[in-house]
Structure formats: structure tokens, C-alpha cells
Input
Amino acid sequence: MAKKKQKLTKEQQEKALKEKRVQDLLNVRDIENNKLYTKDNYIQGYIRVMPVNISLLSNSEKKRKREMIKEKFNDEMHFEFLKLSKSVDLSEQINYLQNLAKECDNHLKKMGLLESIRATSRYSQQGEMVENQYYYMFRVENKDNHSEKELDDKLHDFINKLAECEIKAYILTDMEITQVCNLFCNPTTYVEEFELNEYVTSFIE
Output
């Protein structure tokens, strides 16, 4: 009698998905010329999208912005979207506030600066300050001498579409690709999943 397959819990499914994506990302043979070459003969390129702050826009302007982006990328599905979050290093900010406090002669201002230092230190120790980073990964099969150009064309076409929507983005360098691999596997980071209609607007904050 065949044994019934046990249904995975939501937490187990999320863990299995993340492990699979980590293995996919770490399927690395080489990183050069702003590209990642995989062991199974694919070439991958990465685009980082800078967050868009629309807090000063009206509701109708926000809606129009989102709809414009969705329309522009409606037929664009050949990529993987990653939202990675990491703890922010606040040491420079703390040092800056400490220097201000040392040079401050006004008692009330100095007390305010000291309170800011304490609050920032608490955030730093508890890891509550995070930075969201948004990436698109494109890949092509490494079939011949034209494969790298095919990937370059995909990356530049996508960046041009983003620029038409007034969104800043750039292709990652070798060092930045390496950092993304490390960031993806760092236990202090996490990856969020999105519905298909959210993958192009989730970087709008």
C-alpha cells in the first residue's frame, strides 16, 4: 500500500522554497564582466532598482504611477524578483551624534543629542533598522558567443523601461553580485514573496 505523502506546513514550504532559491543562487561557476556564470551553463545578470518614495503624491497620482509601471511591464515575465532586507550599520550615525554632543554647549540640545544616541544604539543592538534592497535577475542559456549579448540586451531594455517610468536602476558589478549572494544567504536577511501583480510595484514606498 502506497504511503500517503504528508502535506507540508506553510513554514516548511517557505523553508523549502528559500533553500531551493539559495541553491539556485549559489549554483556559481564564475563571476566576471558583470555576469554570473552557473555550473549548469546559464549566464545571469542582476539589476538593482532604487526605491521610489511617493509619500508626497496624492492618491490618484500614486495609482497612476503604479498603473503606468504595470502597463509598461505587463508582458515582461522572464526574470526573478528579489527583495532582500538587511540590518543597517548605525555606527557612523552614532559616532556623528557623539561628536555633535561633545561640541555642543547648549544643555537642552546636548540632552536631546544624548537621547538620540541612546535610541539609535537600542535600534542597532536589536537589529530593528533594516534596509530593503530590490533586484531583478535575468538569465539566458550559455549556448554560443551571442549569449552574453542576448543577456546584455535584456538588461539594458529593462533599465530603459524603468527609466521611462522615472525609476532609477543599474546593472550590478562583479563585486555587487558577490555581495548579493552573501546577502541572500545571511541569516539576518529575509526574502519576501509577492503576487505577480506586485513584482513591479513593491519597490514603491
Summary: The helical segments are 10-25, 59-72, 91-103, 107-126, 147-164, 174-185.
